Amino acid sequence: MTSSAYQDLSARQQRLYRLAHLQAIAQWDQAANMPAKGNEARSLALAEMDGLLHQLATDPALAGLLDAAATEPLDDTQRANLREIRRAWRAANALPQALVEAKSLANNRCEHAWRTQRPANDWACFAPNLREVLVIARQEAELLSQSAGLSKYDALLDQYEPGMRSADIERAFAPLRQWLPGLIRDVTARQSRETVLEPVGPFPTAAQKALGLDAMKLMGFDFAAGRLDESTHPFCGGVPEDVRMTTRYREDNFLPSLMGTIHETGHGRYEQGLPRELLGQPIARARSMGIHESQSLSFEMQLGSHPAYAGLLSPLLVKHFGDQPAFEPGNLHKLLTRVQPGLIRVDADEVTYPAHILLRFDIERALIEGQVEVEDIPALWDAKMAELLGLDTRGNFKDGPMQDVHWPAGLFGYFPCYTLGAMYSAQWFAAMRAQQPDLDAQIARGELGGVFEWLSEHVWQEASRWETPELVQRASGEALNPAHFEAHLRSRYL
Questions:
Q1: 168 lies in some domain
Q2: Residue 363 falls within a domain, yes or no?
Q3: % of the chain with per-residue pLDDT over 70
Q4: Is position 375 annotated as part of the catalytic site?
Q5: Has residue 253 been placed in a domain?
Q6: What's the structural domain count of the chain?
């Protein structure tokens, strides 16, 4: 029989989950709907909620309940849940409530100002706000590092990728640093000899939105449990029962919005696919941000840029924009797989994308470890963009170090998860093909169920039941193996 201590802990988790639900909707509204003058009041309200959640998560009674629950006759699911409750409790107790509230306030203010400072290329006004965010992030890293016995950067990384260390990331990224520059050169040389028809715009925002909704339907998104809106930076938020996705539109080019929507749909379906009977408990949360990004990239890159997928998208483009030669499936596939070193990470193709992550990983780790300061970022950025992608970003802050929401929002330690996600997703599809040899033929027929059922069984329904290495081993039959990512890129592009 379930113990009273474990039941008490479960009830407390449920309460935290419901309050976090309200917070998630307030954050989505802040990004998608809120008028600009509402930001200061909203920031104060969110900081208050962060403080309240922290108070509940660090209630002194929890220590005794955790110890008592550990001695009780729990089943495997309850034991896994207890492991996750203890992990969250330990991290929460490392931080004082005043710091949690100060962090929330600084991040919200910096991110809100960034929305107007970025288009204005205003590094001079952005830098002081970012400095304040960094001061707090370093204090947080210091306290978490003392509590967990990790380096400062690893302590922040652990919040997004539990159990992963920067040494593990270096091991996974080291081969990438070796082969990526040559692959970019080879693919761009090969593609320079191809003829590609560019789509003729403009592409009205209303038509793009309708196209995005059709693409989401094709990908199995449940609109009774989520919606699509518009924001400065695309994201997926809300809660599993009410997923809030956003994208952004440019009338001269529909591809960034379309592929951004497909990317966020992968996040959304993961959330919608988490085990409903366990929602409210930490075991039912997405395992990590690397695993989360593996879902968005399974949708956007593995599936969305698959040669056969262009055949499914082509009629949708004709329906919303009218017929034109550029929408022919063969040409559309070329458009979806153009490799072109560019300034903007979120618009990058899957071959050059990891270069954007290597740059950010190197800079943010040095920032948190105190080796560089905010004023050093532009010069480091310029040097690394020149080295990794051969591009000049001098003086262009809006398309350089100001382009992402992550640092203004205090999300240090998140960036490596994108390339880990690309590696995991390549590994998922290698495992799928081993189990379903006709997978590519299924996709060509528009039968995507084989992909979604595999992801649901091996990733979505497993949630946080296993720690990440165990989840990866069970799903794919081996530990994280970056060779699958290289093999995927070489096979698709060369």
A1: no
A2: no
A3: 99
A4: no
A5: no
A6: 1
